[in-house]
Design brief:
Rossmann fold, 10% strand, 266 residues, 39% helix, single chain, 11 helices, 7 strands, alpha/beta, five-stranded parallel β-sheet
Length: 266
């Protein structure tokens, strides 16, 4: 029988070469997504708080790629003295690519608190596609065919109820804070204070960094920085098809978390 995850990590991190690195902490919370939902901004804002230490590498993907690094490496990401330690890995809510993340996480970190940033699911899916264009994974001319088949990574990542479900089963809803990224953009002061209260750190803390809008651009780029002067736009038929596909999941998500998200297009 395979060793439990915690014991495997203990064995892998026990060698003399990793002893010095193993002095770091383990996270007390994690931002688990969603991709293109504002996780980079929130990671930056959280790192400004004097009671919070964010991981040196923003996206550790520690539970997404369990064979990638050992526990000593993970601890080495949290070396500053703090009351709360956190990381931000949007891949944690991509169960269509890797399942079992919530279970692995809970096995090692049963008292973790989780933050899930969500965004209008169709807008997020389009932004996800453009991100992949920027990374050279798809071509901008593939936009129409990409969204013809709805079993694609961008749309599947927007199935918020399905993505969050394993974390609710593992941790319970009371340990999960669900935020609309639109509120982080439009009502940043109260949203950041809400996050700080959730983490039991001083909610009154403010930094000039919080006034800086991050990752906002009116022009998208393709591979090698080539500008996409006219980013692709969904046709009304495509938008309606995606909305019909996602609506049952988004309705369940609204009911689960008790939020209306009335500003969304679904």
């Amino acid at each position: 029988m395979p060793l439990p995850l915690r014991d495997r990590f203990r064995r892998r991190s026990a060698s003399p070469s990793t002893t010095e690195e193993s002095d770091g902490a383990l996270p007390t919370f994690a931002v688990i997504g969603a991709m293109k939902g504002g996780t980079s901004a929130l990671h930056k804002y959280l790192g400004e708080h004097p009671q919070v230490c964010m991981s040196t590498k923003k996206e550790t993907d520690f539970f997404f790629r369990p064979e990638g690094h050992d526990l000593a490496w993970y601890r080495s990401q949290f070396t500053e003295s703090a009351d709360q330690y956190g990381e931000s890995s949007p891949n944690y809510t991509k169960r269509h690519l890797v399942d079992g993340i919530a279970q692995r996480m809970h096995e090692l970190l049963p008292d973790l608190r989780l933050i899930y940033l969500v965004r209008d699911p169709i807008e997020r899916a389009v932004s996800h596609f453009l991100h992949n264009v920027h990374k050279g994974r798809v071509g901008s001319d593939e936009f129409e065919t990409y969204f013809t088949d709805l079993d694609n990574q961008a749309v599947q990542t927007s199935r918020y109820h399905w993505q969050l479900e394993p974390f609710v089963e593992a941790y319970g809803l009371n340990r999960i804070l669900v935020l609309a990224s639109e509120t982080l953009r439009d009502d940043r002061a109260e949203t950041i204070a809400q996050v700080f209260r959730f983490l039991d750190v001083d909610p009154a803390f403010w930094s000039p960094t919080f006034d800086v809008e991050r990752h906002v651009t009116s022009r998208k780029t393709g591979p090698y920085g080539k500008l996409l002067d006219q980013p692709p736009v969904l046709s009304s038929q495509q938008h309606a098809a995606i909305a019909e596909y996602l609506r049952p999941d988004i309705d369940r998500f609204r009911a689960l978390v008790g939020q209306d998200f009335t500003h969304w297009s679904i």
